[in-house]
Amino acid sequence: MAGDGHLLQTISNSNCSSHNSKKAKDKKKKKRGGSKKKMTAEQTLAFKSVSEWVFLDQPSSLPPSAASFVVDDFGVQKSLGKGGEKLVFELHSHSKFSDGFLSPVKLVERAHGNGVKVLALTDHDTMSGIPEAVEAARRFGIKIIPGVEISTMFSPSGESELEEPVHILAYYSSCGPARSEELEKFLGLIRDGRFLRAKNMVSKLNKLKLPLKWEHVARIAGQGVAPGRMHVARAMVEAGYVENLKQAFARYLFDGGPAYSTGSEPLSEDAIQLICNTGGVAVLAHPWALKNPVSIIRKLKAAGLHGMEVYRSDGKLADALGLLKLGGSDFHGRGGQGESELGSVNLPVLAVHDFLKVARPIWCGAIRDILGSYAEEPSESNLARITRFGRTRIFKAGSLNCDKDLVDRCLSLWLTNEESQTAEFEAIRLKLSHISRNQGGIQVPIEIK
């Protein structure tokens, strides 16, 4: 009987082991997104629309076919062997122009190495790195979405709630923001506040018996870059006051921490309204960091918020409020554990399509406003607004006989035929068809006979 009992126990253990193994495999499979399957008709149409936009300014490149891909249970693309490149979107990244560790060129190179096809550079309170990123991206066939992460403060109306720092991501067309001077003035005031904020942090650290030097922080930030908490933290590590960046934030620099300080951040609602007024898409960054997310997000939605990052939450609030569900790695390039890599946040095909479905009409309107201003006054300052993020690309393919050629070239790079063949753009073309350009860039009226 002992033998039978042992056999029964062995069978039981074997069955249990097999069952546990199956459960483990199922759990692992579920974690990876579940089974792979063909795209639905809706996903196929979305994929086609997205890929056409991605390769719009790359006529020599053929968009990948939806037949080359399957999707997992979350709707994320999975390549079928060597059938094509995934359309990886990276919508949240930083360079040395704010608190990132890499130059825009190195950032683009890294994105290319990770298979990213669309990269949004979203430095804190500045768009100064965009031109460099655009030039670098041309070499790798990467599309750049000009972006910025705006530092704001949410000020509740009720006395029981406290103010909270809120970061708003703004995404613009390839042409950049309309009324760019207004946005730049807005961002400039925030950057001025960042200098004062960083100096206050250094002062607080000094009072805590950590004699950090302001010059040390400024050197790490670099000339002309508004210092942030990351620069202060890096200086603390280099000076030996903390072991690593995580410790600097955990002990001193966290929101409300002993060395934390605020700057001159505008109200969150004001930032969102300005983004909307300048032709941008407004998205809430890392909402999981908020202490009172539901109340704040509801009010930001009322102010014009288009979407929110959800890759570290389930997105139910976004669904309830009708907000776009987006995400990105928030890559800074500091290395080490805990940092998501560029392109590591896999957005579902339908999420990307929904984003572009909202963004493209907004961007089209901004492009129309910028080109329209130039048609009304074909000055060098208005031309600079058109070519701000892509002068080389616009002028590289031969001469432009008249400003209508300039408009046609821009529209071919930025919009589909359907988007550009409107009465408004035709009126702009007509106005500029009478203005020629010589090699010096001076506009000369064409004599009409």
Automatic annotation (TrEMBL):
Compositionally biased spans, kind Basic residues: 20-38
Region called Disordered, residue ranges: 1-40
Organism: Morella rubra (Chinese bayberry)
Protein name as annotated: Protein TrpH
Pfam families: PHP
Molecular function per GO: 5'-3' DNA exonuclease activity; 5'-3' RNA exonuclease activity
Domain Polymerase/histidinol phosphatase N-terminal residue range list: 89-154
SMART domains, sorted: POLIIIAc (SM00481)
Gene3D superfamilies tied to this protein: 1.10.150.650, Metal-dependent hydrolases
